[in-house]
Amino acid sequence: MTAVLQAQDLGKKYGRRWALRDCTIDVPAGHVVGLVGPNGAGKTTLLKLACGQLAPTSGRISVLGGPPGDRAHLARVGFVAQDTPTYAGLTVAEHLRLGARLNSGWDAALAEERIDRLGLDPGRRASRLSAGERAQLALTLGLAKRPELLVLDEPVAALDPLARREFLRGLMEATAEHELSVLLSSHLVSDLERTCDYLIVLVDSRVRLAGEVDELLATHHRLTGPRRDPDRLPADQYVVSARHTDRQSTFIVRAEGPILDPAWTVGRLTMEDLVLAYLEQAAPVRRRRPALAVVR
After folding, report:
1. Which of 67, 113, 228, 245 has the fewest CB within 10 Å, making it most exposed?
2. Residue 157 burial (C-beta neighbours within 10 Å; 0-12, 13-18, 19+)
3. Distance of CA 24 to the CA centre of its chain
4. Buried residues in 27-49 as b, exposed as e (16+ CB within 10 A)
5. Which residues, in sequence order, are bridge partners of residue 18?
């Protein structure tokens, strides 16, 4: 299956500051990919590189098997930017007509059916819509383009919980119906947990973790037991995070095999546990192997 996104040593620099560096990932098509990281980690930069809005400073990037930014690529990628931008003075219907003029593969029936199902008044101007309704309009514009890849940059950050749930429900329904690949950036790990089956974690402008969610959760564990120095753990247990009291240690580790030491109580992680462990990792606790885990 064609990779939806491939990058090799990808980097982007603004002046003297690297917004993204040493990014090497290989994401297969057919996934809803969650991209998570703190502010300034490089999420938006990576998405703009994938959409051809920026040129890399170093390295290479391929999207849907080709270079981003040319005309053929733009026709295959839908993009919904931060704040789900719409034109305040245009009506819902005028947005759809503009979409049809700008996109040769425009699916008018899909757009009109979705607007009707959402109960949006075609004659209402975008300035009169709620934040949730504007987000749904922006999503409709992205879907009606009939892209192979839909890129969404923090689309629900400004929405209330109900509007967020409705947006994500619509996204998941469309993904299943149209067999889209999706690249979704969000600060809200709970939203990613409900929607994503592939995860990329960016910290300090670098990819710290990438892979299918099920495999990442299967290879990461919480170990709780008597206080122990991390260097005493087996070499195949990479320590992501460590916490200690006077008598007890708690580690989150990535392990190649089963945990056999009977001194440890082994616990399963949620996606939120996993993400937070890597976000808290200012630097690798141990350097026996790199922090990046790429599961193909």
Report:
1. 245
2. middle
3. 15
4. bbbebbbbbbbeeebbbbbbbbb
5. 13
For residue 237, the cross-strand partners are 255
Beta bridge partners of 124: none
All structural domains of the chain = 3-204 (3.40.50.300), 214-279 (no CATH)
Give the list of residues 6+ apart from residue 277 with CB closer than 8 angstroms, or none.
220, 240, 241, 252, 269
CA end-to-end distance (rounded Å), the chain: 12
Global pTM value: 0.87
Name the token pair of 243: 């916490």
**Token representation of residue 39:** 């502010």
**How many residues are given for the chain?**
296
Q: Using alpha carbons, list the distances in angstroms from residue 8 to 21, 61, 163.
A: 10, 7, 37
- Token digits of residue 90: 């245009």
For residues 20 and 188, what is the distance between their CA atoms, to the nearest angstrom? 21
| 11-39 pLDDT, tens digit each | 999 999 999 999 999 998 999 999 999 88
Contact between 103 and 189 under an 8 Å Cβ cutoff? The reply is no
Picking from 222, 271, 219, the residue whose alpha carbon sits closest to that of residue 243 is: 222
Distance CA 66, CA 73 (A): 7
Joined together, the tokens standing for residue 130 give: 């709620």
* Half-sphere exposure (Cβ direction) of 208: Cα atoms closer than 13 Å: 28
pLDDT in tens, 177-233: 888 999 999 888 888 888 999 999 999 889 999 999 999 999 999 999 999 999 999
| Positive or negative: CA dihedral 173, 180, 30, 161 | negative
Rounded to whole angstroms, the Cα distance separating 3 from 227 reads 44
CA distances from 243 to 25, 140, 226, 248, 268 (A): 30, 45, 12, 8, 17
